[in-house]
Specification:
Largest sheet: 2 strands, antiparallel
Strand order of the largest sheet: 1-2
Number of domains: 2
Distance between the termini: 24 Å
Shape: globular
Structural class: mainly alpha
Helix content: 55-70%
Radius of gyration: 21 Å
Order of helices and strands: HHHHEEHHHHHHHHH
Strand content: under 5%
Amino acid sequence: MLSSGLTLIFSMMGVLNFAHASFYMLGAYFAYQTGLVFGFWPALFLAPILVGVVGAITERYGLRKVHKFGHVAELLFTFGLAYVIEEVVHLIWGRAPVDYRIPESLNFTLFTLFNTQYPAYRAFMMIISVGMLISLFLVLTKTRIGLIVQASLTHPDMVQALGHNVPRVFMLVFAGGCALAGLAGVLGGNLFITEPGMAFAVGSIVFVVVVVGGMGSLVGAFIASLLIGAIQTFSIGLDLSFIDLMGVLGVVIDSNSSWYAGLSITISQTAPVLPYLLMVLMLIVRPRGLMGTRES
């Protein structure tokens, strides 16, 4: 969901939003605050709307002002905005994690496979994610709204001449992308930890997913997120060193060799780095990503 929102903003507006993960954090905090009053299910709808409103205000009174100065100014604005949002969170909710929990109605085991229990809440997250992706894809490709949004990026003067308010279209697109990030925060904040550092924890991996999948491609973001998730998950479970892998290939490394210490590292130890290595490899082999159409 995070990658889809970021891809939506970039593909429609050409803006690479460095503060995107901060809107994800706001979604978690808004869901926590509204959940105290209304409960989880109303918060599931209210929090993304509130984040979308914050995104619309940001685009109208901030990003639109610096748009005329080019992409560098936009990057600097969103980069600084991430720090501002983090400090606002510190002022309102403090620096300690908040008690945002999974609702009791979804806090049970859905099924057990090979002695491993699969939580119902993760299945709920999966259903919402896939449903959101399909809905977003259909809106952008099969509806009049989607055609107007795409035409506003490539032919803004023609769209304006046809009577559409192009700046308002961009504002709604940015708000929609932020709302998707907020929805991800609502669903992820209680499964993980809702605290001021959560934006920094996921911010970098979101950009890796977008680059590997292809800038501006929703399908690419979906495929890349599954690929990177599988790489990280399975690599953590493999307690094999690179020496063991080379032994399978018939290559024997002498213990006195200078390479022995480096190759004795297990795959699970390198799991956090593997997505970034994949991104570097993708930039070398296929700069436009898996499903991207542009290399710049």
